[in-house]
Amino acid sequence: MAGLPDKTGKYDLTEEEASRYDRQMRLWGIEAQQRMRNSTILVIRLRGVATESIKNMVLAGIGTLVVVDGEDVAEEDLGAGFFYRDEDFGKNRVDAARARIESLNPLVNVETISNSSVLEGEEFEALVRRVDLVCATDLDQNTLVRMNAVCRQFQKPFYAGGTYGLVGYIFCDLLRHEYLALDRSTPQEHAKTIKTSAVYSPLQEAIRYRWSNLTKRQTKEINPALVFATLALWQFQSLHKQLPDDITHADELEATANSLLLSGDVNKQVLSSVPRSLIESISTTAGHEFSPVCAIVGGMLAQDILKALGGREPPIANFFFFDGNTGGGTVCRMNMP
């Protein structure tokens, strides 16, 4: 039985919910759990990263999950997409996955939309208006920029994430986001939390970041090679309407990455060109999904969304890049005030 709504229309946790989420409420508090319980999350495109993120968010106890995907289950989806089975081949992705998503947590309301037309024009605007947060996965840069702009229009937080073979990324635009953080002005033994805020930038502005204001050490810690290889991949996809899938694409991808590196004004003592080995790895694997990479990126994506909903810890500011070749990841603050 659902709890009763308060004056704002939000619902209290039921006894069943309080019992199921007891352990995690001890970790992040009842208020954070309540905010998750009253949230409606829109996830766009159900591939490997979204599969992992949905699992974690549903188990954590969000209120409503809306998943949109108009594509059918393909053979490659059967690897990283653990909501699918062999017999689901050829079925619509969300139709095939819905029952398995619901079985993770019967207390979460799951809605699926198998018509991708809702992601365009006024239908998309209407969809964004009725959710609390949008998470778009494995989409091209132009589509992400457009969706981010619509989310900004209606003041809704926006996340994007995806993998390209052995590399992956997360981006978030949380508008002006308030959260609790440790007060570093007090001694550690007397540390307390204070409310603070961060102002985020839309994707279109974030990717125009110039690196000249970073020190040599700061630039090295961020690993700009991975950043510019990913941005070059986005440009390749925009130009060719597909991802690179062969070593013959490496020369073009390398030239694009190094051009972006130059225009980004990166310290040449740290990186004068993007390593050929990274370019070749991306050129041959970008169109494939690897379960371990999807699990890492999707898990971090869900964790950060839950942080944003709970408001108890600082979320990513504002990019995260992961390199499966080295097993390392880096957070990169790009064009945030």
From TrEMBL:
One of its GO terms (molecular function) is SUMO activating enzyme activity. InterPro entries: ThiF/MoeB/HesA, ThiF_NAD_FAD-bd, Ubiquitin-activating_enz. Pfam families: ThiF (PF00899). GO terms for biological process: protein sumoylation. One of its GO terms (cellular component) is SUMO activating enzyme complex. Residues 21-333 form the THIF-type NAD/FAD binding fold domain. This is THIF-type NAD/FAD binding fold domain-containing protein. The lineage of its organism: Eukaryota, Fungi, Dikarya, Basidiomycota, Agaricomycotina.
